[in-house]
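Hey, weird one. I pasted the Wzz/FepE/Etk N-terminal domain-containing protein sequence into the form twice and got a warning about non-standard characters only the second time. First submission, copied straight from the form history:
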Amino acid sequence: MDTIGSNNEMSLKELVDTIKNWFFFLLTQWKIIIFAGLIGGCLGITYSIIKKPIYKASLSFALEDEKTGGNLGNALGLATSLGLDIGGEGGSVFAGANLTELLKSRNMVEQTLLSPIKVDGKLISLAEMYIQNNDWREKWQNDDKIKSIQFLPNVERKGFTREQDSILGKIYENLSKESLNVGQKDKKVAIITIDVSSKNELFAKYFCEALAKEVGNFYIETKSEKARLNMDILERQTDSIRGELNSAITGVAVANDNTFNLNPALNVRRTPSARRQVDIQANTAILTELVKQTELAKVALRKETPLIQIIDSPILPLYKEHIGKLKGLIIGSFIVAFLTVAFLVFKKIIHTI
């Protein structure tokens, strides 16, 4: 037991002596360490000045997707049983995680990039603004295939060339990896947040707002498409029957004019008027039912059209991620001084070996 205690005591003493030796060794190198720290501080300040700040735009929204129910649901069920499909329950294709994936999809991002914005009094697309912010046109001057390519706002995506597709694909790749973040901060709350980061403050704000608008329009049109189509069909049928009814009423009047003061014995001449009276009665019954179903279809369309409520939108000035001069000085000094100490220790160990 005494031997073990003695060995432990010697080991602790050796450890303390080793720490002292390293401390005094580093103390003899204080000039080098301080000089390295000063150089690191200068580098940190220089980096904080050169490094452009990153602006972050955030937009959050909630969906109110009201489902058909109650008395309206009973009425729609009755209409369906009569063979009339006037819309009803909307699908949940874009619910939850599916909607966040839609916001990050290439189609939606590229359509957003073609949205018009006004910069310095000139109407351009967000794609053009991105190209200008990253000085891509200067790099394209020696490439005849792409140096004259322009992305005009609101142009048809289908007519793009292979080079335009490639450029848009590269922008989408950069945005999806570095700038665009979409998700729900709390899974229990149905609020979706869009975060866009960029070195250009206006681009971050414009792109964030345009993406929410583009996806919102697509979402609403898709969710209410079936109800809108059925309402359009019912409106066309209503207009058609109303035209037939008006024609029948006019026909009765013409037939009555032709039989004015007619001999009561000539009843065959009254046949056109009787036929028109039957048409009036039939068309009146059909028109009455169609008007009812059209009104139900309008209500169904309003129920099927989801409401996208913007909760927070990006407001200038945006949140800025930037390394200040003091922070750059401290971080730069620490990193370079630490690397210098590590180098001196490693050099002494190699020399000792």
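That's the output from the first submission. The warning seems to come from a hidden character in my clipboard, not from the data itself. The first strand starts at residue 54 and ends at 64.
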